[in-house]
Amino acid sequence: MQVTSLDHLVLTVADVTATAEWYAAVLGMEAQVFHPADGSRRVALAFGRQKINLHQAGAEWEPKAARPGPGTADLCFLTEAALSDWQVHLAARGVAVEAGPVARTGAQGPITSIYLRDPDGNLIEVSRLD
């Protein structure tokens, strides 16, 4: 038995709307409203063939992580764009680069990364395969 890929992950956030707007403007993700089988209204961030479901802190959907909370994630995203272009893009949006570019090792091999923080303080790594 073996899993084959990641379908989605969940971020618990302080403000779903602000988070969705930030990920759309800064990382180019698409905020999507969806209605699961229970009839609720939820928000996800779509990119590629993956998505990030957003849970409002204090009103998380069940089942949930044992200790959900804003600012507890460390996520790495791959890009095909030059990191120098990312630095210009981020500066134009007032988003500070915390570290990088720096050499790292990702799941697919060597990468070069820059690090920033989302509105909740989650560590966001934007990486390009070397």
UniProtKB/TrEMBL annotation:
Q: Where is the VOC domain?
A: 5-129
CDD domains attached to this UniProt entry: GLOD5 (cd07253)
Q: Which SUPFAM superfamilies match?
A: Glyoxalase/Bleomycin resistance protein/Dihydroxybiphenyl dioxygenase (SSF54593)
Lineage, opening ranks: Bacteria, Pseudomonadati, Pseudomonadota, Alphaproteobacteria, Rhodobacterales
Instruction: Note the Pfam families from the entry.
Output: Glyoxalase (PF00903)
Which named protein is this?
Glyoxalase-like domain-containing protein
